[in-house]
Amino acid sequence: MTDDNRGAVRRRVIKSGKIAFGGGAISCVVRNVSESGAMLEVESPVGVPDRFTLVFDTDGSRRRCRTVWRKPTRIGVAFEEASLPI
After folding, report:
1. Which helix (H) or strand (E) holds 36?
2. DSSP state letter for 38
3. Residues near 29 by beta carbon (within 8 Å), at least 6 away in sequence
4. Beta strand pairing status for 51-56 and 37-41?
5. Chain centre to alpha carbon of residue 18
6. pLDDT at residue number 37
7. What distance in Å separates the CA atoms of residue 23 and residue 9, rounded to the nearest whole number?
8. pTM of the model
9. Are the C-beta atoms of 68 and 31 separated by less than 8 Å?
10. Which of 10, 12, 35, 84 is the most buried (most CB within 10 A)?
């Protein structure tokens, strides 16, 4: 375990992405990422469902996510499985 109770070390990044769900999408910025999850920055977490697909704009890769915490402009997510096909 890391010092802040995470199971995996997170790398700081700044990548644009989309929170995709039910035919809609919300833009976000991925602020850090690990093998098990990520922290996303959004204008507002209102309307973001508990489960969604995170799509990275840089390469189109996708990860299914489960929300584990919410703050006024940030969302912590756990990845539910390995990368999804594009």
Report:
1. none
2. E
3. 14, 15, 16, 17, 40, 41
4. unpaired
5. 9
6. 95
7. 32
8. 0.81
9. no
10. 10
